[in-house]
Amino acid sequence: MNIALWVAVGLLAVVFLVASSTKLFIPYEKLAQAPGAGWVNDFHPLFVKSLGVLELLGAIGLILPAVLGVAPMLVPIAAVGLGLIMAGAAVVEFRRREPLHALLNLFYLALCVFVAWGRFGVESFA
To answer: Cα separation of 68 and 120, whole Å?
Structure first.
């Protein structure tokens, strides 16, 4: 179980590092024109950058506390936070009638739930 949780955490960390870097380093206008990023047009540029910061912090929160052994309770908390972001993303994608993107967001949500459940209880670091 511990290995499965680490694999899920690693996958989520990579996904959110990539997602946050695109939101933070690609200009808003260029990001809005990217395939699959039409949702950006529905939000203010500052919101998109803030979302990138939150995703970056979440990715860091999934890995560093457990690896360093400092406040490992932050791992499931980061998973919950990222899960909330994914739930919101799925809602936005469903409203935009982009079901494939919404399903991908729901998959990431499921991984976040799995990590939170596993690290809060079954395989906690405590």
So the answer is: 18
Structure confidence by residue, pLDDT tens digits, 68-107: 989 999 999 999 999 999 999 999 999 999 999 999 999 9
Q: What are the residue boundaries of the structural domains of the chain, listed by start? A: 2-122
Residue 74 contacts by C-beta under 8 Å, 6 or more apart in sequence?
61, 65
69: left (phi over 0), alpha (psi -120 to 50) or beta: left
10 Å Cβ neighbour count for 120? Answer: 16
For residue 39, give every residue at least 6 positions away whose Cβ sits within 8 Å of its Cβ, in sequence order, or none.
89, 92, 93, 96, 98
